[in-house]
Each structure stands twice: as structure tokens, then as C-alpha cells.
Write a structure and sequence with these properties.
Layout: H1 2-35, H2 57-65, H3 68-99, H4 105-114, H5 120-133, H6 141-144, H7 152-162, H8 167-175, H9 180-191, H10 193-208, H11 212-217, H12 226-231, H13 241-272
Helix pairs in contact: 1-13, 2-13, 3-7, 3-10, 8-9, 10-13
């Protein structure tokens, strides 16, 4: 009976996961299908999942008429420096909150977490006025410089991961003569690769998919990010959905490749974070 119950439980779990996977893949399948349709057949009913005829020319049009490559380069320029530098600064702060003892540590950590409770729409106008006053509009500075100082969410997750690392390793390193910064560089960072990879993926995806920030601060077409380039296919009265979907499929490729190569670190970093309160 136990074997039958175990098999039934596994079959139920697999069936549930398969059904969930199908529902999650449907939007992507519809996006890819739409990217291969003629403009007049996008909203036909019933839905034709296999287009007839298949219009690969939509991808050719997107690649030749839209500056996708330039938008991709602009996006990478904007997100990569804040991702790496911000990850380092967040890790430094997380290490201090997790392992170092100093007056007001818990109060400062609670104050840091409090900033996560403030909605972005509340600070949007004051931040815009600030950047306008210092002359940062129509530049990449508002999208890059704040990220160099890390984020509260990243500090929180890395702190939780650092707390899972045994303190005996830190004590042994101190006996060998390492100062706190040496412990951080030689002990904490090598042991926290999964957590750093997970937070790096979150940071990359957040910047890569950001539409509102570039829309607010960037006006010059040559500075457009990939998301603004894709949005240029949508007008006030007419939207070319086939080209939008074709561009979206192409824009999805870098994120899929990134997750494919970093999947092991990503899953390990998420599962290990928060095991120790």
C-alpha cells in the first residue's frame, strides 16, 4: 500500500507540474505564433496556433528596420556596471549586517528594510525632480548611478545567506591573521557564489526588462534601451503586433541563455537563502 501511495503521489505531482508548465508556456507559444502571422490574422478566432502562411519576414523586418542591436548595447551598458558594482556593495553591507558587531546594527537593518515598503510610485516624482535639478535628464546616469550603491532587497537576501555560513570559518580565518575585509574577500564571497549568482540574475532581469525608467529619463532615440525600441512599434492609433511579438521573441533570447547557464546557481542560491533566521 505504501508503494502504491508513493507512486500515486508522484504521479499526481508530475501531472500537476506538467499542467502548470503548459499554462506557463501558453503565453510564450502565443507570442511566437503571433510573430509568424500576417498583420490581419493576429486576432482571428478561433486561435490558429500554427500560422498559415508562416511569415519569417517579420523577423527580417525587425532586424533591418528597428535598431534592436543598438538598443541591446544601450541596455547592457546601463545594467552591467550597476549589476556588478551594486552586487559588491550590497554584499559588503550584507556581510556587515550578518557577521560584524557594531552599535545600532539592528536598527539600521530595520531602517533599510523599511525602504522596501515604500512603493516606487511614491518616490517617482521627487526622484524625477532631483535628477532634473542636477541635469541628469536624457542621460543614462539616473538609470546607472543609483544602482551602483546596491539595493535593500539584495542586502537582505545576501545577509540571510551569509548567516548560514558557519562562524567557525570566520574565526579560523581571523586566527590566521585576516582582517574583516580579508575574511569577506577570501571566505564569504567564494562560499556565496550561488546567492551572488541568483541576485545577479535578478538584477540583470530587472534592468533588462525595465521600461518605465528609460521611458521617464531618456528622450533621444539613439539612447533608447531595448524595451523602448520594441515600444516604438506601438503607435497612438495602430500597433504592429506581429513586429512587436517578433522583437519580443528576439529580446527574450539573452535572458533564456543567461538562465540556462546559471540555473544551478540560481536554484541553489534561492533554496539556501533564509535557512537561518
Amino acid at each position: 500500500m505504501n508503494n502504491k501511495e508513493n507512486k500515486l503521489g508522484k504521479l499526481s505531482a508530475y501531472a500537476f507540474l506538467i499542467i502548470g508548465t503548459v499554462f506557463m508556456l501558453l503565453p510564450f507559444l502565443w507570442m511566437f505564433s503571433t510573430s509568424l502571422k500576417l498583420e490581419g490574422k493576429v486576432f482571428e478566432y478561433p486561435i490558429r496556433w500554427i500560422p498559415e502562411p508562416i511569415e519569417w519576414s517579420n523577423y527580417v523586418t525587425v532586424l533591418t528596420e528597428a535598431p534592436l542591436f543598438g538598443g541591446l548595447m544601450n541596455t547592457l551598458i546601463i545594467i552591467l556596471p550597476p549589476m556588478f558594482v551594486g552586487l559588491l556593495t550590497s554584499a559588503l553591507a550584507a556581510y556587515a549586517f550578518a557577521k560584524l558587531r557594531f552599535p545600532g546594527r539592528e536598527f539600521l537593518f530595520v531602517a533599510l528594510l523599511t525602504t522596501m515598503m515604500i512603493p516606487g510610485v511614491v518616490t517617482m516624482i521627487p526622484t524625477f525632480i532631483l535628477f532634473k535639478t542636477i541635469g541628469w535628464l536624457d542621460s543614462w546616469k539616473p538609470l546607472m548611478i543609483p544602482g551602483l550603491f546596491g539595493s535593500a532587497a539584495c542586502v537582505f537576501f545576501l545577509r540571510q545567506y551569509f548567516r548560514t555560513i558557519p562562524s567557525e570559518l570566520e574565526d579560523a580565518a581571523k586566527i590566521d591573521g585576516l582582517n574583516p575585509f580579508g575574511v569577506f574577500i577570501r571566505i564569504m564571497l567564494p562560499l556565496s557564489k550561488p546567492a551572488l549568482a541568483a541576485q545577479g540574475i535578478f538584477g540583470f532581469l530587472g534592468g533588462y526588462n525595465d521600461f518605465l525608467g528609460p521611458l521617464i529619463y531618456i528622450n533621444s532615440p539613439e539612447k533608447f534601451t531595448l524595451q523602448l525600441v520594441l515600444a516604438s512599434f506601438q503607435g497612438y492609433y495602430v500597433s504592429n503586433w506581429t513586429l512587436i511579438m517578433a522583437g519580443s521573441v528576439l529580446a527574450l533570447i539573452p535572458t533564456v541563455i543567461l538562465f540556462f547557464f546559471a540555473q544551478r546557481y540560481f536554484v541553489e542560491g534561492i533554496t539556501m537563502t533564509g535557512l537561518k533566521g
